[in-house]
Design goal:
This protein is 22% helix and 32% strand. The chain has helices at 28-38, 42-45, 47-51, 62-76; strands at 18-25, 88-94, 103-115, 122-132, 138-149.
């Protein structure tokens, strides 16, 4: 059995460090498709109703925005990490609406990291994910935590 080598271990998440996760453009079609299935409020799925709303046009569901951010986080580093999942998200903020044609740029900042005292093979990383639009305006933040495996020590291992 081979042991997989990862790019991101617990020790790589240094408080204050920021991972750039790239950009993603949002289309009206995907906004309506996601909302039709998961958040069918009129201003997410109906152009006429949306034009009469406070938003003036169709906007992405906040949950769609979170899902897009999550995909960028998974593609950006989680799939190349020792991630053991997450015990939860502490805070989600939808600051500005995400509109058709917007380009989201996402970053992940490490706020804090703590090695586990009960399970020495892992630690908890506290992060803030931020999405800004093409104008550099903050549209969403997600604050939470994840568990990551520790980097294996080289040399002799004794239990």
């Amino acid at each position: 059995m081979s042991i997989k080598s990862y790019k991101w271990y617990f020790e790589d998440f240094i408080p204050g460090s920021v991972i750039e996760l790239g950009q993603r453009q949002v289309s009206e079609e995907e906004i309506i498709q996601f909302a039709s299935q998961f958040d069918p409020q009129p201003f997410h799925i109906d152009k006429t109703a949306a034009s009469d709303s406070i938003f003036g046009d169709v906007i992405a569901s906040g949950w769609h925005t979170c899902s897009m951010i999550m995909r960028m986080v998974v593609d950006g580093f989680l799939n190349e990490s020792t991630s053991m999942g997450s015990p939860g998200v502490d805070e989600v903020r939808w600051i500005l609406p995400v509109r058709p044609g917007d380009t989201l740029t996402v970053t992940a900042e490490t706020l804090e990291s703590r090695p586990s005292t009960s399970k020495l093979d892992r630690g908890v990383v506290f992060t803030m994910w931020r999405a800004v639009n093409q104008e550099g305006k903050l549209v969403c933040t997600i604050k939470g935590m994840g568990m990551f495996g520790r980097r294996p020590q080289s040399g002799n291992q004794h239990a």
